[in-house]
Specification:
Length: 144
């Protein structure tokens, strides 16, 4: 079990909601899976948010969204290391991009950086298979 020792307030949660909104705006049509990992004492805490959207609709679990936004607020404090991966599928095409958090700010990763982090066990350094037909792409900027 991982322990996160941090207090976050209204501003951190508001920043988390801003970051989520920018992700939703920039992710485009399709089905998406966000995986957020935040370092803590004894390991990582991970939350997943699945959502689907097109020009007219947006679908996501309220419970997943709430839990994800809480952990994202912790990442936004800058008190713990954090990383975020988004896997998107549209028209049979699958793309993966990612961000790392530096001082609570999501920094876009290049396609090659995302590929490395996504295809290596960060504990052992051993390579992991990326999965078939996955394209790694540069992450869009989430900065204002």
């Amino acid at each position: 079990m991982c322990a996160l020792h941090v207090s976050f307030g209204f501003n951190d949660h508001a920043r988390a909601i801003e970051i989520m909104d920018r992700i939703f705006q920039k992710s485009g049509d399709g089905t998406h899976r966000l995986v957020l990992s935040v370092d803590g004492i004894g390991g990582n805490t991970v939350r997943i948010l699945r959502f689907a959207q097109d020009n007219e609709t947006f679908e996501a679990s309220e419970d997943e969204g709430f839990e994800f936004s809480e952990l994202l607020a912790v990442a936004a404090t800058g008190a713990h290391g954090a990383g975020l991966i988004m896997r998107s599928r549209n028209a049979g095409k699958e793309q993966v991009c990612g961000w790392r958090f530096k001082e609570g700010i999501p920094i876009s990763l290049s396609a090659s950086q995302t590929h490395f982090f996504h295809t290596h066990d960060l504990t052992t350094g051993e390579p992991l298979p990326p999965g078939p037909d996955v394209e790694f792409v540069d992450a869009p900027s989430l900065l204002r």
